[in-house]
Amino acid sequence: MKVSQLLTVPNLNGMNIIAGQSGIEREVTSVNMMDAPDIIHYLNKNEFLITTAYHFKDQPHMLTELVEAMAKQSCAGLGIKTKRFLDNIPDEVIQLADQLSLPVIELPLHLSLGEIVNHTLRAILDQRSSELTFALETHKQFTKIIMEGKGIGLLLQDLSRMIQRPVQLIDQHFKSIFHEEPIEKLPLLLDGKTLPPPTTSPTSFSIASTRDTYTIFPIHISERKKGYLLINGEVEKTDHLTSLTIEQATNVISFSLMKDSALKQQDRSIRNDFFLHFLDGTFSSQEEIIGRATEFSLKNEQQYICVVGKIDGDNYLPTYAKRHEQTDFIYDFIEDEVFTMSPKIHFFTKGESCILLFEAEEHMTHPSTCCESILVQLQERVLKYYENTISFGMSNLCHTFLYVKDAYKDALDALSQGNLSKRTGYIQNFQTKDVTELLRTVPQDDLKNFYSFALSRLTNIKIEEEQTLLETLSVYLETHCQISETAKRLFIHRNTVVYRIEKCEEILGKSLKDSETTLQIRIALRIRALLQN
């Protein structure tokens, strides 16, 4: 309790402050009785010392040494029975007490020192008991909000109302997680700054440009992520009720965020396992892939751009463990950043690389340009917060989720191509190298339409005959229309090849000697292989 509160205790009626009025907000945590002149060596911080001044009756000026020593030890105040052995407090003592803001209190004669000690201790304990009861009730109130599913937002509203200050929940990069009311200027003023690892005690800071003061209370979220409760203004250490209220809020918020973080980690692990199995070709059928992908909001009909990113340099940290830890921090940061971005971005990790799967929206005329601008933003923020550069390889647009596996390979190839040039912090687009890669950039419906146009008549015959003719046609065109070489590769007689080729020309109604016809058929056969993958 404070000295000012001690003066209002009913059982201590008659106590009057005679010096050091400006120090009445000093904290009182204990009380001591002076029974020897060397009490100076046994004084404690926030201690209220009471005495009859018997040891100073012949040398009242020595009180100045006691007052000076008590102020140096940050004691709460000095209580003296002035009508016992000292008629008056020396003027120099009063002046020194005023100067040092150390309260000097006149004790009532009708109370013994023992009674004053007991009443003071009882008042301190009663206040502590009230504070603990208040803390327990506050904790119950905050816990009830979370248990009823009303969310952290409502908890922050209640907290703000109780302490009469705006409140905001931020991460270590001053990015708002939740807020009771917007504090718009804070992220702008502190953009690029990173808070140090949280301690167990609150910390106050001021922004020089605005002279605004804030107090942050640390909140544990997960092993790799910390948060802070940001309070407008400085929260004094002596303001116990406010501090207790905020501490109860931080405890409840911490448990809530830890639970959410664990669930998010589990969900991320399941999503990541599915995607890695998809890339590795573990699933047995396209139907299984499409069905599983839908569970993670990955629609097969959606167009995607795949991006593979990797932290630049193998030696930016001295040990593998440090590099791995820093990489995890950066990828966690990137995942949080892209979570709220538009267009929607799906985030995965594979080894030391991260994978960003951009959903291309219909209204986008140049989706790759949009992706590049987002990647540039991520590079800038990683450089600001972690002083590291990250490079990205970007695929071309793929038209279904099933093609993402090939898009991943293209993005990985683009990343490798950029790495060969010894650059850092780059964004490398994939360059198409063959016809199959070019065909992947064409919408699947268009591919099916072209295939039907070029080879539709062959699909109207028996399946066995269709497969035989298509196989012969494919080898015939690959061998540059050489009958003997085609027969050799298919282990059939050359007359059989001639018969089958004539049969194809008859069904298609076209001559295979026409260069335009053979080009269409070659492309259609590539499309057939692509559609079957």
Question: Could you describe the 3D structure shown?
Answer:
The protein has 533 residues and is α/β, with parallel strands linked by helices. The protein folds into four domains: 3-122, HprK N-terminal domain-like (Udp-n-acetylmuramoylalanyl-d-glutamate--2,6- Diaminopimelate Ligase, Chain: A, domain 1); 150-258, GAF domain (Beta-Lactamase), CATH 3.30.450; 283-440, Reverse transcriptase/Diguanylate cyclase domain (Alpha-Beta Plaits, 2-Layer Sandwich), CATH 3.30.70.270; 444-532, Arc Repressor Mutant, subunit A, CATH 1.10.10. The longest helix has 40 residues, at 240-279. It is built from 17 helices and 15 strands. It has a five-stranded mixed beta sheet, with helices on both faces. Strands 7-6-10-9-8 form a five-stranded antiparallel beta sheet. α4 runs parallel beside α7 (240-279) and α5 (151-163) runs antiparallel to α7. It starts with a helix and ends with a helix.
Please outline the helices and strands.
Blueprint: H1 3-6, E1 16-19, E2 30-33, E3 47-51, H2 63-72, E4 77-80, H3 91-100, E5 104-106, H4 113-147, H5 151-163, E6 167-171, E7 176-179, H6 185-189, E8 203-207, E9 212-220, E10 226-232, H7 240-279, H8 286-295, E11 303-311, H9 320-339, E12 345-350, E13 353-360, H10 367-386, E14 390-394, H11 404-420, E15 427-429, H12 435-440, H13 444-455, H14 463-478, H15 483-490, H16 494-508, H17 515-532
Parallel strand pairs: 2-3, 3-4, 4-5, 14-15
Antiparallel strand pairs: 1-5, 6-7, 6-10, 8-9, 9-10, 11-13, 11-14, 12-13
Helix pairs in contact: 2-3, 4-7, 5-7, 13-17, 14-16, 15-16
